[in-house]
Structure formats: structure tokens, C-alpha cells
Amino acid sequence: MEKVLLPPLHIKLGIVKNFIKALVKRNNERAFQRLQQIFRRLSKAKIKEGVLNGPDIRKLMKDDQFEQCLLEEEGVAWDNLKAVIEGALDKLEMQESDEHGERFHQVTAQLEHWYSGKKQNLLLADLCWNLQMKSDDEDDN
Fold first, then answer.
1. What is the pTM assigned to this prediction?
2. In terms of Cα–Cα distance, which of 81, 109, 69 is closest to 18?
3. Among 6, 25, 40, 83, which is least packed, fewest CB within 10 Å?
4. Nearest one of 81, 84, 95 to 7, comparing CA atoms
5. Among 82, 72, 67, 94, residue whose Cα is nearest residue 132
6. Rounded to a whole number, what is the distance in angstroms from the first to the last CA of the chain?
7. Over 70: is that where the pLDDT of 6 sits?
């Protein structure tokens, strides 16, 4: 089986897409309405599916009002997601390292196995935590 390593941008797109889809599943109307205000050019269907691009993600990450629309545990997951994107994934974009991509794949595969059939927001939070810890360990070396 051939290993597929995703570029950091694709990882960001996937993580943010899953986060938005989880918000929709949780029926967080305030957050969804804020997403519609931020991305007026996107249809409701595209927003519900989390179809964003790189500039859209940067715009969303800078929007303080979006964070205020999140419930407590969603806010924790969002903070972790932002930390991973701003830390580990931005570093990966600069380095474009296959080693980091492989490590990301190993972490996500392990977490997917542990959380199969469980709540997606728990998986997302643990993924963000694991990536941040790996990044901190690398900085110490």
C-alpha cells in the first residue's frame, strides 16, 4: 500500500471542514449565522459542508465574533484547532517535510482508531492536542 502524504494546506482544509460540519450537527445557529455573515459569497450548502479555501480559513481565524458564538467546548476545540494551524501546520508549510507529514498521518490514524464511533469533537480536540505536543517536543530539540 502506497502512503499518501497531504500538504499542510489540505490538512487545514480538512480539519476546518470537520469542525464546521460538527458545529452544524450540534445545531449551533449563532455560529452558523456568523459563518454566513463572514462568507456572504458562499451558499448555505457550502457553508454547511465546510467548503472553505486558505484565505477563508485565515479570515475565519481572525474573526473574534465567531469565537463568541461558540459554546464552551466548541470554543476549547476552536482554540486548539487554531493553535495547531498557527503552530504545527504553519511550520509544516514552511518546511514541507515528508517526515512531519508521516508523523501527522501516524497520529491521525491512531486517533481515528481510538475514536471510531465516538464523538468527532473529542477526536478533533485530541488531534489538536497531540499535534501541539509533538510540535513543542520538536522545538525543545
1. 0.61
2. 81
3. 40
4. 95
5. 82
6. 32
7. no
